[in-house]
Here is the input.
Amino acid sequence: MHQRILTLLIVATIALTPAAVRAQARTADPAKRGVALSEFPRIVRLGDGVYGYEEIRQPGFTTVSLFVVGRNGVLVADGQGSPAATRTMLEKIRTVTPLPVRWYVVGSDHGDHTAGNSELPKDIRYIVHPASRAQLQRDSAAAAASSGRSGQPPRVVVVPPVAMTGDRESIDLGGITVEVLFLGRGHTAGDLMVHVPRDRVLFMSEAYLNRVFPAMRSAFPTEWVATVDRALAMDVTRYVPGHGFIEEPAVSREELVAFRQALVSVVDEVKRLHARGLSPEDAGKAANWGAVAEWFLASQQAPIAIRRVYDEIEGRIR
Ligand SMILES: [Zn+2]
Here is the structure.
């Protein structure tokens, strides 16, 4: 066939293929995914009254929140990383519903999800794991101490008044019930997830980082794999990550399996390097991360993962 006609045919075929059929690039990088930064923040509908919220944080990947709208109000799981970013999120939620935000789930206690919580309504009910509440107390004390040294006004760390007492709590939002679950330690000591049984959606917060190198600063590397396995065993069709893109249902499970494999391969590689007697620094130079080396934040997170897995092997994590 004439080269030019062939080219035209290929171009026409691509143009006529619906976006859903075209393979979506498997990456946390908006540029590689073909999504302009100007599209953020954006709301992704996951069910009737169930929404994901994708916002960009530096260095250019998404932080994901969840919100669920019932007749009695709105539940938010995870905020954003600054008062301004959380204020924007609350404004976006108001474009969906006039109902007040009444519940907030601390999926991750890290600042990129909690540093804007001073913008939340004062009468909101927090659902937080005891370990995350204790961490927020320590962060609050540290912020006050650094303000005392610098003379700057303190960074506001909101500490929820009470922690949950078990591993599971049902919340009736009016017409829709969500379950807050602790499936074990993973990214932090107190990771909480939000299950919406009616829509078979599970928001996993930072226990699931979609195509982001496993972030282990305060993680429990081996336990994390078991926590992901408990999520995979649930009757869920759509897994929602705390960073990276929200995927269509089937891909969301494939990507969670890929993330589990990334955790396993990072832990195995660090164990191999540790067994060779290498220092963490030399392990960093000798490491072979395989395909995970291409994942977002790999160069930043790899040295942190090495130190944390060394801590686990040498019994420094309780
Ligand atoms: Zn985070």
Remarks:
- The radius of gyration is 21 Å.
- The longest strand covers residues 61-70.
- Residues 5-17 have pLDDT under 50 and may be disordered.
